[in-house]
Amino acid sequence: MNAPAFAPRLRPDEATIATVIAELNKRFGNRAVTSLAVRQQHANTLTWTENQPPDVVVYPQTTEEVQDVVRLCAAHKVPVVPFGTGTSFEGHTNAPYGGVSIDTSQMKRIVAVHPDDLDCVVEPGVTRKELNEHLRDLGLFFPIDPGADASLGGMVATRASGTNAVRYGTMKDNVLALTVVTPNGEVVKTARRAKKSSAGYDLTRLFVGSEGTLGVITDITLKLHGIPEAVSAGVCPFPSVEAACEAVIVTIQSGLPVARIELLDAAMVRGVNLHSKLGLPETPMLFLEFHGTESSVKEQAQRFGEIAVEYGGGPFEWATKTEDRNRLWQARHDVYWAAYALRPGAVSIATDVCVPISRLAECVEETRQDIEASGLIAPIVGHVGDGNFHVQPLIDPNDPEEVARCRAFVERLVERALAMEGTCTGEHGVGQRKMKYLEAEHGPAALELMRVLKRAIDPDNIMNPGKIVAL
Amino acid sequence: MNAPAFAPRLRPDEATIATVIAELNKRFGNRAVTSLAVRQQHANTLTWTENQPPDVVVYPQTTEEVQDVVRLCAAHKVPVVPFGTGTSFEGHTNAPYGGVSIDTSQMKRIVAVHPDDLDCVVEPGVTRKELNEHLRDLGLFFPIDPGADASLGGMVATRASGTNAVRYGTMKDNVLALTVVTPNGEVVKTARRAKKSSAGYDLTRLFVGSEGTLGVITDITLKLHGIPEAVSAGVCPFPSVEAACEAVIVTIQSGLPVARIELLDAAMVRGVNLHSKLGLPETPMLFLEFHGTESSVKEQAQRFGEIAVEYGGGPFEWATKTEDRNRLWQARHDVYWAAYALRPGAVSIATDVCVPISRLAECVEETRQDIEASGLIAPIVGHVGDGNFHVQPLIDPNDPEEVARCRAFVERLVERALAMEGTCTGEHGVGQRKMKYLEAEHGPAALELMRVLKRAIDPDNIMNPGKIVAL
């Protein structure tokens, strides 16, 4: 491996930017926008990361138009920052070196649905809810559900997952093929529609989780699933987060094919009650869902109930009506906003670690003690069936002491997960904020291999520079 | 993307080879072997591909020893060909430019089993049966089962699958992490043991299916599954392969979580009867297996029975005893050898295409007609739940006319699959024999991207040269 090192990435000079903007105006008319407000909306707008706007935002409508933008940027070595809905947490959409934000919100076609093959082809700007709206009448659904109604392009780019991942996997497992415009302006189709293949390197998985640093995704072939014949959901209180985690571990180990198993600690339940008016007992709580036939769902729920009792949990309360179930899961998806109810006016910090499930109870419990010792308001929520959880500190950004205390807590959280064979990010991605942890997580040789890939595919570092491995 | 093109790969000169052999003898003693018989056993020994032996076979026992071999070869630009059990079909283990075969059969440690996390760490020489033997008392199993008792390293390298893939996925889905010695002699650990991660590029999937062309795998972290509480298996006859395929399509579309659903055409059933003494009716046949709880298995089987009747199939016959079930699946796994019973003394040609399941019945039926029109003896067997099937022509290699007829048939088979959005290989891999189809399957831009990856990671083309994308 001897790909040359990058030259340091610089912001292009003003004249170059002016030339690119002029070309984009000529080509895209009012679909190229330079107003500060729009540019700021296209940089990081969530969490405490600084907002670093691009120089111009362009709204292509086809793969060919994306090609034109990338070729123009490549010719001038100007950064390209792909943009979905701007709901990522780690500064993914920031433009630290300026450049062109490619907003995919006008690429919203659902190109094809193949019910017989349980797959579909969509453009990257389609959001997960829009897709499921479209699929409902066909009896199909797409299971991956991060908190936000994110774009599917963004979800591919960050290797997103969510509450259903414990049963249906993550974006890694649910993308069959991609069309990608690579940094040289070529169009690569990563795979065929066959359900499996051994025909060469796995280009699909190369781009899933690449966060726009290797190319711009312009269409996506996704696996779909039949809407289960029966769904049952409910909540189950536990005396402690530790007890709840122990129950989760046993549930997973026993092979119970639970579709969702989500932990909220007492603080997060309080936030949810305030935000979503749920009236749940304010104690650690698992939110669960089972998918299957009428009889298998009943069987699963009964087995889980038995496990819960063993760990002091219960009673397991059912949401039998569809509207109650939807209300429950909407509340779960809104936790990021619900947390604010615990400290109105505060800034929320997203965190995201994942450990082998055998270490989950220990990791969550140590973290809970650390929150207490740190004097932070920091509710916990987690996709605990995967060993993945989020702590969401709510801080006053104008109190430097509190900010420092929170930063130190977040560092310890990541170090704790890494020490338990875990990862610094289960589903949010690296972006700008997690770059510093990659060497500790992967070691120098693996990190250098990632750099080799980046340099080989994007030698001028134009694709979303300043993210993952390329400063 | 501007990685330089490869210099044409040449066989190293005799003096260089002699130097490398002398160094290996010094370092490994009688674990470096140059006898012709051993060298020939380490090149292609199955199907009609020419046997191209390496210059020397070495048997390392640790990652460090693999590093030593790779560093030595890198210093002299001598080819390295990783070797598992030699059961691949596409010439993967051939050494067209000579060099060093790294036989992993002395790397057989099961390093760790983590029952709580449903994963384990194994060395690459452990075979799938050896692993399952080890796991049985823990109530766990590893589901991926190609026909042969292949090494797990080889299975990672070819992105193998088998009869359980319809439910449990392929090697792509069941590898959590790898340790790999890269062509520069560095040791890369591709991921942590957490069940999911978004921490950078997916190095694990980069190596799964890379067929030894990007590095040598020295340990593997695999996902495990609990042995299901209940298993039921059986066979179901159909009036035609088309009817059987239609029943499969409906089974998959209806979301029935079948664990195995395998097609044998009448010719293959005849072969199995001869080879494994089964006495099945010689008509197209589905072999099925259901995993779950007692009640869910019963429910699945009943639903499948209803679907089968709709397509003129049945009666569905149960293998209720474990030994009957094992006998059935052993027979299924032995089809490669069973086919020989149809034409003793013939040479068998392995083929392997996969299409979207909506095209399966059409693809298999056209293929059946093509076999008939070609006058070949060529039974069909398939992992039809994934749209993947194999035709296994049995030919007289000394009859040039028949060889030509068979080659033309195989070409048409691949073209037919590609025309139906399928792939030239569902699970066997590219090796030497499928290289010529990659451009038709992926297009020039994707193929060039694969070459960019190869050149960046292995600039001197020492890792298994002459396979996948690098001549």
Largest sheet of chain A: 7 strands, antiparallel
| Percent helix range of chain A | 25-40%
- Dominant shape of chain A: globular
Distance between the termini of chain A: 20 Å
Describe this structure in words.
Two copies of one chain form a homodimer. By secondary structure, chain A is α+β, with helices and mostly antiparallel strands. Among the domains of chain A are: 110-226, Uridine Diphospho-n-acetylenolpyruvylglucosamine Reductase, domain 3, CATH 3.30.465; 230-338, Alpha-Beta Plaits (2-Layer Sandwich); 344-419, Alpha-Beta Plaits (2-Layer Sandwich). Helix content of chain A is 37%, strand content 17%. Chain A contains 16 helices and 20 strands. Chain A has helices at residues 14-28, 36-41, 63-76, 128-135, 152-157, 165-168, 171-174, 203-207, 241-253, 266-276, 294-310, 322-333, 335-338, 360-374, 400-419, 438-457; strands spanning 32-33, 56-58, 80-83, 100-103, 110-114, 119-122, 140-141, 175-181, 187-189, 216-223, 225-226, 230-237, 260-264, 285-292, 317-319, 347-348, 353-354, 380-383, 388-391, 394-395. In chain A, the strands form five sheets. Chain A has a seven-stranded antiparallel β-sheet with strand order 15-12-14-13-18-19-17, sandwiched between helices. A five-stranded antiparallel β-sheet of chain A has the order 5-6-10-8-9. In chain A, strand 5 and strand 6 form a beta hairpin. In chain A, helix 1 runs antiparallel to helix 3 (63-76), helix 9 (241-253) crosses helix 11 and helix 9 (241-253) runs antiparallel to helix 14. The longest helix of chain A has 20 residues, at 400-419. At the A-B interface, strand 9, helix 8, strand 11, helix 9 and helix 11 of A face strand 9, helix 8, strand 11, helix 9 and helix 11 of B.
